[in-house]
Structure formats: C-alpha cells, structure tokens
Amino acid sequence: NELASMMDVGVTQIISTCMSLGMFVSINQRLDAETLTIVAEEFGYEVEFVKPQDEEANLDEPDDPADVIPRAPIVTIMGHVDHGKTSLLDFIRKTNVIGGEAGGITQHIGAYEVTLKDNNKITFLDTPGHEAFTAMRARGAQVTDIVIIVIAADDSVMPQTREAINHAQAAGAPIIFAFNKIDKPGANADKVREQLSAMNILVEEWGGKYQTQEISAKTGLNVELLLEKVLLEAELLELKANPNKRAVGTVIEAALDKGRGIVTTVLVQAGRLKVGDPILAGCYSGRVKALTNERGQRVESAGPSTPVQVLGMQGAPTAGDRFNALESEPEAREIANKRLQLQREQGLRTQKHITLDEIGRRLAIGNFKELNIIVKGDVDGSIEALSDSLLKLSTDQIQVNIISKAVGQISESDVLLASASDAIIIGFQVRPSGSARKLAEQEQIDIRLYSIIYDAINEIKTAMEGMLAPTF
Ligand code: GDP
C-alpha cells in the first residue's frame, strides 16, 4: 500500500507484480529491500534506502549550545598482533588510578576511564584491534574519538598495521602512533617512521601531522607522554557534550550473568544515565536497577564519556547498539518491540535457508540453481518412488538433489544436515520428532509432510515454477 502510493500506482498492480515474482502479498505486508527494488524497477523507479526517521529521531534531545561542556576523549588501541596493544591497555589500567583510590581497575567491563593530573580523563575501549572497532561501525556506532596505533619498533609496519590505519582513516578518527618496545635492543623507531612516510603518512617530527610517541608498554616508559598527546589531540577536536539531558550512548558489551541477569556495559556519550531511568538499547528495554563502574563500585549516575555497567535490561542488546534513557518504561518497551518485530520481519525475508515459499523469490532475483531435498518415509518403496519423481523435476534452471533418503521419523540429525546444506525436508507418512521440530524452527528449516506422493511432487513442481502460494 505504501509503495503503491509512493509510486502513484494501484495497489493491485503492485500485488500482481509481486505475484508474477512468486510472492503472494497482502496489502499491508512489508516487502524486503530486494523485492522493493525489483518491484519498483518494474514501474520505472529506482529505489534509494534512507534510515528510518520515525520516532527514533526524537529519542535524542536536541542540545542548547549553552549546555554543552568539554568531555573526555574515547580512545581505541589498534595495531598488529604482538606489537603490544594489550600490554599498553594493561599498563594504563594498572597505573593510572585516581590518587588515593583503593583497588584500581579490577573488572573487565569493556571500557575503562583513567584520570590523569589536572583531573583530565581519558576513556579507553578495552577490546583492542580493528575487528571490534569495525564491527561497531558496521552497526552505525561511532564511538572512538582518537585511535592509538601501536607499532613495535623492533619490528615494522605489518599487514594489520596497515589495516588499522585504513580502518581509522575510514572512520575519520585522528591517529597517534605509539612506537612500542623501545626498551628492546633492536628497536629502531626511525625505520618505522620511514615506512610510514612511504605510505604517505608523515609524522610530526618529520614535518607531518601525525603525533607519535616512543614508549615501552612493558616498563611504562613514556606512556604518560603518550597520554598527554592524546589530551592534546582531544583539545583540537573540541569534544563536547551536554551532561544534563537524558542519556544517550552505545552498548559496548552485554552478557547474561547467572546471579545478576543481563549485564550490559554502555558508554554514555551525552546526558546522564541514572539509577531508575527507563532505558532502551537495540531491541530491548528495561529500567536501570544498578550502575557499577570498572572498579566494581556502585554509582548513582554516569555522565558523558563514562563507561558503566547497567543491571536491569530485559534482554541482551548487541555491541554497537545505541541506547537511550527515556521518559517512561512503557515507551521504551513499545519502541523495543517495534524494533524486534522489524528485525524479525527482515530476518524472515533474508533467511539463509531455503523454503518452498522462498523459491519463487530467489528465482526472480536469479540466484537459485539447486534444490536440495532430504526425504524421509515410512517404507523403502515409497521413498524410492518419491525420490525418483522428484529428481525428474530437474529443469535447465534448477537441479534437484536428493542429499539423503531414509526410512524413519524426521530426526534432529536430519534437520542439522538440512541446515548445513540448505535443504528442505520432505516427510512421507512420517512426522518430525519433538526435538527435531524445535530445532527446525530455530534453524528455519522447511519441513513438508505428505501422505500422497502425487501431492508432494505437485507442490514441489509448483514451487519450482515460482508459483507456490505461501502457507500460513
Ligand atoms: P598484542 O597482541 O598487540 O596485544 O600484544 P601484547 O600486549 O600481548 O604483547 C605481545 C608480547 O610483547 C608480550 O609478550 C609482551 O610482554 C611483549 N611486549 C609488549 N610491549 C612490550 C615492550 O614495550 N617491551 C618489551 N620488551 N616487550 C613488550
């Protein structure tokens, strides 16, 4: 209906176009991206997808410029394996604890904050490497302000160093290079500077724009100087946030804890998250029951650039999901449910396993060549007869393969095989076991049961012609 009005054509025209693609849709049904594109093309339109602009846009309260104040930089450490990322994170974690505070950073919650002299703070994401960084970016989360790329000075610029540089540059995040292992006899930072300049990356001491620092993550030599350079870079970025509105930020990690339920680490990016706040993160909602910092201490609230562990989510969101504190819990729940439903719908349409209803759509897109079938039946004779007839349905376009045929109930192992080889399961005069049915639901495997051979053949044939009406 929406698509019809956007293109100013009749709804029935859209429905019949979908039918010609083998999809029987109702007037209010949402179409997936591929189908939308194909259908719109039929009417001479090109489709461009834009981010949903619905209520989501209003979740984040606008800022009055008078309300924003400087915030701490958020830093990710990247670099080649064994060049010293973890050692550097550990050294900073262990040494830079707020003066006089007992304990230090005791817990790994995915991020931690350190306080330097003059009460300057820096927040570090505690998962080094560009994989996590890029996975978060793929989900639309832009968390990192500054990237430290560690290069072992006794080694050289390595493949993952290049990758890290590319990823940081793609994200538009400024880079500071840490030439590590400077305590080692073979260390030669100038060699690394030269390799960088060969990649068009000119370091500051050679007249370029990139700050560098020679350090030893092992002994801690010059790590403080490195952190000062981070602060300098941060100053140039003029990082600011409003600390006095409802909190917004990003999920860093989430896990199920046996005793405490869902434990979610979030990084507050603006506003202030408080105990008692209704909260929405990804497809889940909840209410903040307790907040804990990386020192294992309970806190009442967390402001901009602060990582904090949240208890009280109803489900585990995914790293990179955006979170928002909201006015009311019902509102949070409603948006969460909407998102969950949308995700299910999209998931359903882009499922990876074949179903009979799916064939028409895949045919229309032109990426369907083989139909894998597992046949289970009550007696040998009918299984053979059915399999033979199914094989004969092969056309120039679609090859039918019987990847397994056997007497007996449809079992879990049949479902696993179907899942691994993208097959459908046909049961003739047999049914799936309870556990097989459950697994099939989970794995989204299509199980079809028949008691008349002709029906089975006819239905598969129709599906292969892209004409099968979906069953509900
Ligand atoms: P990652 O893979 O980048 O996280 O590297 P690690 O931090 O695990 O370090 C790899 C190895 O290098 C470990 O054996 C560290 O002890 C060692 N290492 C790290 N930094 C230094 C350093 O500054 N000096 C020396 N001598 N060894 C270091």
Automatic annotation (TrEMBL):
GTP binds at residues 79-86, 126-130, 180-183. It is found in: Cytoplasm. Residues 70-240 form the Tr-type G domain. Belongs to the TRAFAC class translation factor GTPase superfamily. Classic translation factor GTPase family. IF-2 subfamily. One of the essential components for the initiation of protein synthesis. Protects formylmethionyl-tRNA from spontaneous hydrolysis and promotes its binding to the 30S ribosomal subunits. Also involved in the hydrolysis of GTP during the formation of the 70S ribosomal complex. This is Translation initiation factor IF-2. The gene is infB.
